[in-house]
Amino acid sequence: MAVHNREIADKFDRLADLLEIEDANPFRVRAYRNAARTVRGYPRSMSDLLEDGIDLTELPDIGDDLAKKIQTLVETGRLPLLEEVEERTPPALSELMKIEGLGPKRVRALFLELNIKTLDDLKEAAESGKIHEVAGFGDKSEEKIKERVEKFSGEAPRTMLIDAEEIAKPLLEYLQKAEGIKDVMIAGSYRRRKETVGDLDILITAKQGAEIMDHFTNYEEVEEVVSKGKTRSTVHLRSGMQVDLRVVPQVSYGAAQHYFTGSKAHNIAVRKLGIKRGYKINEYGVFEGDKRIAGETEKSVYDKVGLPYIPPELRENRGELEAARKGKLPKLITLEDIRGNLHAHTKASDGHNTLKEMAEAAAKLGYEYLAITEHSKSLAVASGLDKKQLLAHFEQIEKLNEQLDDIVLLKSSEVDILEDGSLDYPDDVLKELDFTVCAVHQKFDLSRKKQTERILRAMDNPYFNILAHPSGRLINKRDPYETDLEKILEAAKERDCFVELNAQPQRLDLTDEGCIMAKELGVKISIATDAHSTSNLEHMRFGIDQARRGWLEAKDVINCLPLKKLLKLFDR
DNA sequence: GCCGTTTTCGGCCCGACTGTTTTCAGTCG
């Protein structure tokens, strides 16, 4: 069973936590955290890299030592140093650090003074009033710990982007009403359009902060004010979302945007470039000595480190700085580049609208074409169509096409890939389709090898065109099924097949890393909404967000093509 | 523990807020 990058990264993070509690060299601690971030975000798995004989020290923040540790982890699943550290420092202490306000120093103090090793120990100590006796803790600290350990429910879940938008919208409207506000923007991973966000980072320009902070903390959805100052405040909303608000002067707006948009890794890399040129870069600007030499716009910040503007979606320190330096930043795809949608359902299977309604809605979005892709017969839960029903449905599509002026409906189907890798319709039916969208909908628990082989076998069918939602994951709900994505993409390239980036906000499948890998391997992508209603068609923008994070350009995406050229691609 | 277009040694991003302090450490982002 291959070790996931995520498992390796989690182990490094845990090791970093425990070492930090042991008061180890902070830079060594940081090295483990940096390595964890590199491994977690890397598009290919460490085990695949090792299998291909790639030297891991070529990865950023991985040196000789960590390369060896990764190799051991891949081979044995173990990290001996972590086990050694856990012998002397109770592993659950890293859990305690997840309580807001408890960092390594205070966790260590509680462990040494009161022998607190677990969350239960902490709860008991807080309730019996022992904590305020420890040096550095007072009554307030004890009270807060008591409250927070009570409410603590593990890792704070990340919110899907679409849900974050719903939370952000009324808050932004409310904030606009404050006196003296000029600009308002949401920075952070929200602006980088990450598929999920941990909190909202809101940035405001204004001369005075104090009244704005009062206005902010008085928002009716605020449940708890965590901290409140003149330039920065943090609250928790009733939804559970944390919101950080920062107020900066207008001259610092660009520097602040850059700083609070992140990612952290990108910022650090940019600041290092600044240091090389003798500049200090912070949220207030670019400084040469005490003199601010840039910072009113983001562009001015990049200017000073000799780079062109880098779009937020690329700011993950995944090679964008090098690409910018060489003038090789991608010309990222935009919503306007999209000419059609290649995955949609109607009432005929499990959609909510009629053919006509879907066609009109798609035409209204300015599309040239919309593919109708009802489920195939094996997917009974989604009212999959049998051969007869499908062909009858196609007749309706043809009839409707005769009436439609500004859009063409394509005859397709979301064809199930059965367990043995065969497709859910015989070839004499498949040949009636303009193209196929093929997908795994059952038997998610096959081994990685079997699942991969199943998909490769399906691609061997000459009528296979697009692999839909390639991992099957549902964000925060269902893990992806196990596959070797690289093998699948290589096979797709060989067989002239395509891979879908499913734009449903809960799917966003391919991931951004998957897009990067597909682009490197030369596999073209279909960004499609898998719409089950007319309003779902507008989810295309989430697919575009994800595609931009995945470095995709219009030329990498097949539904940026006019219809004639598109249809040619489906002739294998 | 990583890294190098001044360095293979000696650096490593930096500012705001809180609570417990009497001048600042710890935490957070």
Write a brief structural summary:
With 572 residues, this protein is an alpha/beta fold.
Molecular structure report:
By secondary structure, this protein is α/β, with parallel strands linked by helices. The chain has four domains: 5-151, DNA polymerase beta, N-terminal domain-like (DNA polymerase, domain 1), CATH 1.10.150; 159-248, Beta Polymerase, domain 2 (2-Layer Sandwich), CATH 3.30.460.10; 252-325, 2-Layer Sandwich (Beta Polymerase, domain 3), CATH 3.30.210; 335-569, Alpha-Beta Barrel (TIM Barrel), CATH 3.20.20.140. The protein is built from 24 helices and 17 strands. Strands 11-12-13-14-15-16-17 form a seven-stranded parallel sheet. α1 runs antiparallel to α2. It is globular, with a radius of gyration of 26 Å. The mean pLDDT is 93. It binds one DNA strand of 29 nucleotides through α2, α4, α7, β5 and β6.
List the keywords.
single chain, 572 residues, alpha/beta, DNA polymerase, domain 1, Beta Polymerase, domain 2, Beta Polymerase, domain 3, seven-stranded parallel sheet, five-stranded mixed sheet, 24 helices, DNA-binding, ubl conjugation, EC 4.2.99.18, nucleotidyltransferase
